[in-house]
Amino acid sequence: MIWDTLMAHSPALVIIIPLLAAFGTPLIGRAGKKYMYTWILCALALTELMTIVMLYHVFTNGTAIYVMGANPYNLAIPPDSHGIPVRIILTVDAFSSFMAFTASTVALAGGIYSIACEHEQTGQEKYYALLLLMLVGMLGMVLTGDLFNFFVFLEINSLASAALVAYHVDKGVATEAGFKYAIISAIGALMFLFAIGILYGEYDALNMAMIGSRMQFTNLDKIAMALITVTMAMKAGAIPMHYWVPDGYGKAPGAISAMLVTASQASLYGLFRMSFTVFGISANHVTLGWFIIILGVLSMFVGVTMALIQHDIKRLMAYHAISQTGYMLLGVGVGLATLGTAAFNQYGLAAMEGGIFHIINHAMYKGLLFLTAGAIIYRVGTSDLNKMGGLGHTMKYTSIFFIIGALSIAGIPPFNGFASKLMIYESVYQFQPVLSIIAMIVSILTLASFVKVFHSAFMGPKIHNVKEVPRSMLIGMAILTFFIILFGLFPNIALHYLVKPAAEALASPMGYLSRVLGGGP
Amino acid sequence: MMLLNLPYITVAILIAMGIYAMVYKRNLIKIVIGLSIVESAVNLFLVSLGYRRGGIAPIYTSAPSTYMVLPTPQALTLTSIVIGVATTAMLLSFCMVIYRNYGTLDSRKIRRLRE
Amino acid sequence: MMSKIVRTQASFLYTFILIFGFYIVAHGHLTPGGGFQGGAVIATGIALIAVAFNFSNVKRWIKKTHLTAAEGIGLLTFLITALIGIGTSFFYNWLANSGLIFGQRVSYGVNPGYLNTAGTLPVMNLAVGIEVFGGLGVIILYMLNYVKEVRNDAS
User: Fold this and answer.
1) Across residues A76-87, what is the average pLDDT?
2) Structure confidence at residue A170 (pLDDT)
3) pLDDT for residue C151
4) ipTM summary value
5) Do C90 and A20 touch (CB under 8 A)?
6) Spans of all domains in chain A
7) Do A20 and C91 lie within an 8 Å CB cutoff?
8) In chain A, which residues have their Cβ closer than 8 Å to the Cβ of C71?
9) What are phi and psi of A461, to 5 degrees?
10) For residue range A379-400, what is the model confidence (pLDDT) as tens digits?
11) CA distance A180 to A247
12) Which among C32, C139, C146 has CB closest to B57?
């Protein structure tokens, strides 16, 4: 009984717990740091638990809906509303719960990591409140089924992230990065709001399912689609709109860089959700799919070539993040381009699975790499690769974690990057061999770049007399490493429970629409 | 008929002005002002979407006729204004921190990130 | 510090600004307005005091920590009010038509509106009012703080 209630209310609880914890943090912070850390860790762990409950709920019972303030909680369309869903609704299908799981896992690792890493900073209660709010933004973006609510959570996410990027003022340099990020995300969000206005004016609805089912695909819709696609691609860091990524990721504190990866992926979720569910029913799949593929290939290739010449460790990793985002865009783009044809079942679905599997893998290994970079900066005090060296002598665990992350991002077999990249190569090769070959070349260049980083940071004579980082930072990194090895050795677990349902849910927008519009309980 | 489109024309002009200010102005505060202008334009767009000729404020208990303007876009605008206040406040405080550290607000001179 | 006329006017007007802001907050469910607008009006009172009087005095009168606490308490009140309804669903209006405070039935037909209706909405408006007052107050105080510091550096 309690278990059923918990499962039914899990979509709301996933958002409530971090929200409540975030608002409580400044008050608890007065009682003392110890209480605050306990409070934060409990909140993050509870969020993770609730996400797993929600994952289980969606896996067993299919798409879940939760209507704010309705009686009962899953009454999407009140009887006296003429068939229009009027309330704010959370629509959780397998793809949403998959993204929520990714976000909350990285946030848990980042929260544990921060306790030691930000130990000497002032204003910690604000840092943790913002960290939790950033998590709320990401979770809300992936769970909501309402366009305007998506905008609100997007803004919560952007504001919290921008403030956190500027958290280490760093003689104003971090503030400069934060300013850039805030301006970019604010203008992007306003364009998104403009698109929402266009869609609302046409279809009298803000519910994604409702708009999707009424979609006519007129010229105005094309404008709205262009605005939404470009905004979301910009927030995800795809190549022509990537200029904020190296600054933002490079200047943020270590844990926040890792969480910014998942924040970008929440925007990626928005891009996929809009293209498949809202515009997918009537839009020209092939054009939209090719647009996403081209964005992906550009991001892959330009990102990795820019990364090769960097000498700042976090900027380098940021360019790799752009490059890896390209794989996800490529995989899902191929799925979108072939949607509805015979080729979809042949290789399109596999490409989508590869792209979606790459999302969680990327969050884990790129998060781990950013955490190791944060650990290096924490001990050495510089992010310049030319001034590092010989860290492997003393920072043994950190270097092991770095090796695992680097091998995984390069797609070397026992780790999770290999599993998703192989799926993308195989399926994309059947679609268009050239794209697959580009993807492989990018993978080789990634390996080359990380060999360089490993060599200049960890190998060589001992220059810095440093100790291993504190235990809580190691625990944060170990959590992500656990998932990397788990998904690398047993990719079938992730594929069966997480990825396959997600890809199928994304590929069948009709199921999503009918779950919301098909009537009440 | 032309008169009914006037709000939308204003929206277009305001967005163009805001984007112009954000792209061509060098002072960070002016960039923030440009952003605020774009935001006002989007808010105006939302409010004018919900406008019906002759409609009154959507308060049920004091409505003599049945013809009201749409309440939803007004709620959206309100939320958007609140978010805009938060964004502007944050950007301005960034400006203050930058000014304290760099001694200038000229975006051509604020380039330590690239070094 | 401004002249005596301004200071007298400011201390006189301050009460009215508070009352007007509270009126907007309390009538949020009946008239245009609500928590955010009312809270913003109240916060302008702080701005008025800060402009009219010497800033170091104002810092002693209005503590940032108190305003931050007001912000947190307002947000928590809002969220807990919403959370109590989770027996049915999150944000469920559990006070409406219950006969308790704010729980009167809304009467049909044209009427001026009664304060004692609408359930959780006025409670949430009050919570948001407290939160916005705290938040905007903190922003005003922090910004004035910076102005002061820069001026000291220049001289």
Assistant:
1) 78
2) 77
3) 55
4) 0.93
5) no
6) 285-489
7) no
8) 26
9) -70, 160
10) 888 888 888 878 888 888 888 8
11) 8
12) C32
Q: Which residue has the higher pLDDT, A296 or A510?
A: A296
Interatomic CA distance for residues A117 and B24, integer angstroms: 40
From chain C, the residues in CB contact with B59 under 8 A are 30-32, 113
**Domain locations along chain C:** 4-154
Q: Would you list which residues of chain A are within 8 Å, Cβ to Cβ, of chain C? A: 9, 12, 16, 19-20, 23-24, 26-27, 66-73, 88
The model's confidence at residue A521, banded by pLDDT at 50, 70 and 90, is very low
3-class secondary structure, A92: strand
Neighbours of C3 (CB within 10 A): 9
| Angle at alpha carbon of residue A370, lines to A364 and A372, rounded to 5° | 100
Kindly identify which residue of chain C lies nearest to residue B64, measuring between CA atoms. C110
Alpha-carbon distance of A30 to A417, in angstroms, equals 43
CB-based contact A191:A231 (threshold 8 Å): yes
Give residue C148's pLDDT.
59
What is the spatial distance between Cα A84 and Cα A205, in angstroms, rounded to a whole number? 8
CB contact under 8 A, A169 and B97: yes
Report pLDDT digits (tens) over B3-24.
678 888 999 999 999 999 988 9
Could you say which of A176, A197, A200 has the minimum Cβ distance to residue B98? A176
Q: What pTM was computed for the model? A: 0.92
Give the domains, in start order, of chain B with CATH numbers: 2-51+68-106 (1.10.287.3510)
pLDDT at C154: 47
Chains in touch with B (≥3 Cβ pairs < 8 A):
A, C
CA distances (Å), C44 to each of A172, C49, C75, C108, C135, in order? Answer: 30, 9, 20, 37, 12
From CA C132, how far away is CA C44, in angstroms rounded? 11
Which positions in chain B touch C106 (Cβ < 8 Å)? 61
If you measure CA to CA, which chain A residue comes closest to C86?
Answer: A9
A467 DSSP assignment: P
Please tell me which residue of chain C has the smallest CA distance to B85: C136
